[in-house]
Amino acid sequence: MTALDFVGVYDPVTRLKSMGLMPELNWDLCAYTEKVTDDRGLVFAPTKVGEPLRDYDLLIVPGGFGTRTLVGDASFIGWLKTAAPCELKASVCTGSLLLGAAGFLEGRRATTHPNAFQELERFCAEVVDQRVVDEGDVVTARGVTSAIDLGLHLVERFVGKEGRERIRRQMDYPG
Question: Which domains does the chain have, with CATH numbers?
Answer without folding.
Answer: 3-171 (3.40.50.880)
